[in-house]
Design a protein that fits this description.
Radius of gyration: 18 Å
CATH class: Mainly Alpha
Order of helices and strands: HEHHEEH
Distance between the termini: 30 Å
Number of helices: 4
Strand order of the largest sheet: 1-3-2
Shape: elongated
CATH architecture: Orthogonal Bundle
CATH superfamily: Winged helix-like DNA-binding domain superfamily/Winged helix DNA-binding domain
Structural class: alpha+beta
Number of strands: 3
């Protein structure tokens, strides 16, 4: 139970970063974002993604374009704004620092007190 709660919190904590990473590759439709995240084993539903996309847009990190669809109504395609790219760069740095901290912690030798 404790592990599940921690795993859930870890996934929630990196969701925004992962969404920005997916969108950084180019203009993308929301259902394609969900598919990309599912492929990466980060299970996300529309009810989670759409509020996150709205928040990112309202914070100036995303914009969107309406694109006509041959199979229904127009679709909203998301792209990063220059500010979104800047924030993503900062998050990349933080992620790399976290990976380093975890890797270093795993490799650390026990101190005299821990033996």
């Amino acid at each position: 139970m404790i592990a599940e709660n921690t795993q859930t919190q870890m996934r929630k904590g990196i969701l925004e970063y992962c969404v920005l990473l997916v969108i950084s590759r180019g203009e993308i439709y929301a259902s394609d974002i969900i598919a990309e995240l599912k492929r990466a084993k980060l299970l996300v539903v529309e009810g989670t993604l759409y509020p996150l996309l709205t928040r990112l847009k309202n914070n100036g990190l995303l914009s969107y374009n309406w694109v006509e669809s041959t199979s229904g109504p127009p679709r909203k395609y998301y792209v990063l704004t220059p500010e979104g790219r800047q924030i993503l760069s900062q998050l990349d740095t933080t992620w790399n620092e976290l990976v380093y901290a975890i890797t270093t912690s795993q490799q650390a030798k026990p101190t005299t007190e821990e033996k």
